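Troubleshooting log. The previous structure file for this entry was overwritten by mistake, so regenerating from the original sequence record. Sequence copied from the archived sheet and checked twice against the printout by T.R.
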Amino acid sequence: MILEELRAHVLQTALLLPKYNLVWMAGGTVCARDPETGYVVVTPSGLDYERLSPDDMIVTDMDMNLVEGKFRPSVALNLWTGFMRVRPEEIFAVVHTHSPHATAFSVVHQPIPVITETMADWFGQPVPVTRYLSVEDPEFPTLPVQVMGNGYAVLLGNHGPITVGKTLEHALERAVTLEEAARTYSIACSIGKPVTLTAEQATASFDYYHHRYGQKKS
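Regenerated output below.
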């Protein structure tokens, strides 16, 4: 079995999605690209992660040609590889969830503004939303990539959020952070008019967090 470690990592990440209440049953997707081979490891379509093992993960190349695996890959593999293709040095991991609060924003086709410093740290800008796209829509593999632009998340209209990162840990943390931001914003709206961060504040917070926060050298 090739890419055994990455396959295990993809499955471990997928198993965390229901633990953070981001998906249920067989929902969601996890996908990662190996920097050495360029191969992609992705969860299989429509199967309960609790019943799977690392060798059940699918390996393809970036053109979605099967390299190794016994199941069908995620039906949206053309979109996951699309994100990786346009930003090959930045995006090695994609996480797709159906987390309820973020999905609610996708249902009303409303972007999620930058409302907390934590959200700014991980996104640096508001999270946009696409129109509804079925997987058979000709624009499905391209429009979400365009709408996300240089950001790190996008909401699929009437479907749910996608988060990306250089690592699976980053993509997962963004998925958790986005859901918490959407929940917090919904609560804040019931109290009063939320005050969102400016573009300058969000960019500065993102830059600080990723270059000078914690154990990073100034």
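The mean pLDDT is 95. Archived copy saved in two places this time.
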